Amino acid sequence: MNKFATYLFSAFLLLPAASFSVFAAGGGALEHSGVNVNDTASLQRGAKWYVNYCLSCHTISYMRYNRLAEDLDLSEDMVMQNLVFSNAKFGETMDIAMDPEQAKKWFGKTPPDLSLIGRSRGADWLYAYLRGFYQDETGGWNNTHLPNASMPHVLWRLQGIQTPMYRQETDEAGYTHEVIDHFVVTTPGTQSAEEFDRTARDIAAFLTYAGEPAQLKRKGIGIWVVIFLAFFTFIAYLLKAEYWRDVH
Ligand code: HEC
Predict the structure, then answer these.
(1) Across 7-27, average pLDDT
(2) What is the reported pLDDT for 103?
(3) What dotted CATH number matches 32-211?
(4) Which one of 18, 74, 159, 173 has the largest count of C-beta atoms within 10 Å of its C-beta?
């Protein structure tokens, strides 16, 4: 192999390594969410949960309803009937009428816009957050992934109420702490544990999609680009062999 070919070959070998390190950066000890943004049915369910349970507090001001319709295979009528409860028009963004100042008074914090949350937190974190609400000793809501979150557990009727069981853990310095070992559902909700996991996964999928709507198309195109590059490399190689035959 000549030098150029060796470089090209090693670049190909390094490609997967490069993408793995990107994933590792967002990792941590989070459970895998199983989110699949190419699963349109999951995105549709996620959008429905979102407008029913989240949009009253959290805008997604980068997302327009007509874009949603196009990406999620929904007609204008379906979107207007099932996903729009305000007087927003089809071409408008997913905004709400709530005054941020009021919201701050009520919750102590303004509920953030969630347009980019899928990118900043990642699907696995969102999945963990939505499943991580519990009732603590004060009787108030708390969350394993955002301690003392000022967001109430808006999905508690679906999931039920879970309370933590603690265990003792000794750290390196010899101090003992109580840490959450697992949850026990003390008041059942309308969904089973598996059904609620699916609900959390669908919402996380919807937010992941909303963070970068173009990813649906980009990933589709990406496969063809790779196929084209592989094919082109082959043609270039044949051409090279053809030229060098005369030289040798
Ligand atoms: C009653 C208002 C309200 C509703 C409804 C609500 N939230 Fe929140 N949410 C908040 C508030 C307030 C915060 C800020 C919490 C904090 O930082 O302590 C928050 C924070 C968050 C965050 C964390 C942002 C971050 O990274 O710090 C996420 C993610 C989130 N909400 C998702 C959702 C989803 C998904 C739903 C629907 C299932 C939802 N919220 C429904 C009020 C609400």
Answers:
(1) 52
(2) 86
(3) 1.10.760.10
(4) 159
